[in-house]
Every structure is written in C-alpha cells, then in structure tokens.
C-alpha cells in the first residue's frame, strides 16, 4: 500500500483496519500520540479524536465485504497540529465533504459531517487505486 508521508519516527500506524475492533486500536493509538504532544489543547485532542474515529468508522462500516479490502491508519504530530491518514483499497468514492448535517430524522450521514466540523481540514483523494482520507487539527 502506498504511504504518502513515508515511514517516519514518531508516526503511529495501525494496519488491517477493516473491522469494528479497529476503532479501539485507533483510540489507543491517539492516547499514545498525545504523550508526545503535551502542548496540544484539550479541545484539539477531543476534536481530533472525534474526526479520526468518525472517518475510520465510516471506512470500516462501508468497506467492501470479503477478501482483498485493506485499510491503514497513520497518526502523527507536526508543529502545532495532529494529522491522520486513512488509506484504503475500496472503490473510488464520490462524497461531498462540504455537505451540511442531514435532517434531524435522517438515519445516516452524520459521521462525516461531524468529522468535517471537528477537523480544521478533512480531505478525500484518490491515490492510485486507494482512497486517502486526511484529517488535520491544529491547536
């Protein structure tokens, strides 16, 4: 799988993120991430975790069922920001990340809208045959 930021010391990586249990591993990794970023504000920590967990949850929930699907989560801190990259082998996606929250009675569609509000930047790009989600939260 391509690694857009490369393997860097201090970057936490969760491989095989294809099942709901992955969310526990992501949350544990985020806790470890903050050990190296004591300057991060409580608000930034909370918002970053919300954004990342919502995106990873969306990837896991909508992942193609069966063999062949892979997803990797990478987390890091640079300067005054935390970042996450979620790279998956799913089909190309056509998602409007700027769409607002769905109506009150809608049964789905809130996760990515919530992630967008919690992050300073949330992008989705196609890199080769992979989807690359990028989350950035500054403090």
From TrEMBL:
Alphabetized InterPro entries for the sequence: HATPase_C_sf, HATPase_dom
Entry superkingdom: Bacteria
Metal-binding as UniProt keyword: no
Record carries keyword Transport: no
Domain Histidine kinase/HSP90-like ATPase: 34-130
Keywords attached to this entry: ATP-binding, Nucleotide-binding
One GO MF term: ATP binding
Protein name according to UniProt: ATP-binding protein
Organism: Actinotalea soli
